[in-house]
Design brief:
The chain is built from seven helices and 20 strands. By secondary structure, the chain is of the alpha+beta class. It folds into two domains: 164 residues, FAD/NAD(P)-binding domain; 157 residues, D-Amino Acid Oxidase, Chain A, domain 2, CATH 3.30.9. The strands form five sheets. Strands 4, 5, 6, 13, 14, 15, 16, 17 and 18 form a nine-stranded mixed sheet that branches. A hairpin with a 7-residue loop joins strand 19 and strand 20. Helix 2 packs across helix 7. The relative contact order is 0.20. The structure holds flavin-adenine dinucleotide. Flavin-adenine dinucleotide (FAD) binds next to helix 1, strand 2, strand 13 and strand 18.
Length: 367
């Protein structure tokens, strides 16, 4: 396994649980703040504006997160709902609605006044409405990775942290993985290197620099009970999201509005005033009483495929011993439990528990 972030830690757990021998390698000590899986919270939702093709994978992910919660006695998901905000006839609300109906998901369309009555911190703009997905909420990424890794180890998985993999090459019936110090032969390799995927496979990814900022709130309306997470599409097309105050302030991020780079090494890791200004502007619009001083800003990365959909597949031709996962285009955490299980199934030559055809390799580039 190359990469032990969201997808890799889940895959490691599922392979180990099957009884197969498995080694996971990560360039850092997981969980860490240099990839795509940090910053306290991730939104988990089923009324999925990204498309109804995700519903089986999302349902499976919820089941697996709850199984992990039961096995570990650690709470990972907090399902108090999530608001998808925008024009009622806008793309985001309409697609989320379609998904909610298709998936029989508990939901309600709320006017701006209804949102205000239920969640007093929220101030929707004239013309905006919200779809409330009652099965949604937030999930804690670092805690999930840690729990997957610990349970993988309990099932016999070995891990090497702080160990960058230098190369991964296919021989006739096995794969050779090289680090600075070692050389491993494996019958299968699961490649979950996130933003670094292109170091090993010609996935047409663009790496996006994204920031999250936490703002001090004023009053008691911004904890998870009264302030569910939101995702929002403004009339300009700008997308953003926010998560409730879990003790450090409200968290705000812009979605698919960041600078693009060909490789994580090219991402600017300095925080600019503009990063905070944009997040503050959004907060002032939607949750004005929470728009206090900025307490913290972090940098993170999206690994975007050309169509912004997931990739979960074997490599092609002679490279079928390598299984690729993640490249989740900024919306992959919630499903990572099921992505990991699917990758493990492909590596073990078993049938995945959900249909992976929407997530197959779909670009002309081949090795
Ligand atoms: C700011 C932000 C907000 C987001 N919000 C949401 C959300 O609300 N809901 C949601 O569902 N998703 C969200 N996402 C997306 C989601 O977090 C990611 O899709 C997911 O975490 C990606 O997981 P991954 O396993 O692909 O990558 P990562 O977790 O980054 O894992 C890749 C791992 O590979 C390792 N690696 C790389 N190269 C090597 C090498 N050469 N040798 C060894 N190890 C290597 C890295 O160190 C890393 O640990 C968000 C992402 C960001 C950045």
């Amino acid at each position: 396994m190359i990469g032990l972030g969201a997808a890799g830690s889940a895959a490691l757990f599922h392979v180990a649980r099957s009884g197969a021998s498995v080694l996971g390698i990560d360039r850092f000590v997981s969980p860490h703040a240099y990839g795509s899986t940090h910053s306290e919270s991730r939104i988990i939702r089923k009324a999925y504006s990204e498309g109804i093709q995700y519903l089986p994978l999302l349902n499976r992910a919820y089941t697996l997160w709850s199984e992990l919660e039961n096995a570990s006695a650690i709470k990972l998901m907090h399902l108090g709902g999530c608001l998808t905000i925008g024009r009622k006839d806008g793309q985001m609300v309409q697609s989320a609605w379609k998904s909610a109906v298709a998936g029989n998901i508990r939901h309600q369309i709320l006017s701006s006044d209804e949102v205000r009555r239920r969640y007093p911190g929220y101030h929707l703009q004239p013309g905006q409405a919200a779809l409330m997905d009652f099965e949604a909420g937030y999930i804690q990424p670092e805690r999930c990775v840690r729990t997957h890794l610990r349970h993988a180890a309990m099932h016999g998985a070995q891990c090497r942290f702080g160990t960058p993999v230098q190369s991964c090459s296919v021989r006739q019936d096995h794969v050779i993985v090289k680090t600075d110090l070692d050389r491993f032969a494996a019958s299968r390799v699961i490649l979950t290197a996130g933003a670094w995927m292109q170091d090993f496979a010609p996935v047409p990814l663009m790496i996006e620099r994204v920031t999250n900022s936490w703002f001090q709130t004023n009053g008691s309306n911004f904890g998870p009970e009264l302030c569910p997470p939101f995702i929002m599409e403004e009339d300009s097309g700008l997308k953003s999201y926010g998560c409730p105050d879990l003790g450090r302030g409200i968290k705000i991020g812009l979605h698919h509005a960041g600078q693009l780079a060909a490789h994580p090494g090219e991402i600017d890791r300095t925080i600019a005033a503009e990063d905070k200004i944009q997040a503050h502007r959004i907060l002032k619009t939607i949750l004005p009483e929470a728009a206090g001083i900025c307490r913290k800003t972090t940098i993170c990365m999206y690994s975007n495929t050309p169509d912004q959909h997931y990739l979960i597949d074997r490599m092609y031709g002679d490279h079928q011993h390598i299984i690729i996962g993640s490249a989740c285009s900024g919306h992959g955490f919630k499903a990572s439990s099921a992505v990991g299980e699917s990758l493990a199934a492909l590596a073990l030559d078993q049938s995945p528990s959900v249909d992976l055809s929407p997530f197959k390799w779909r670009w002309p580039t081949k090795i």
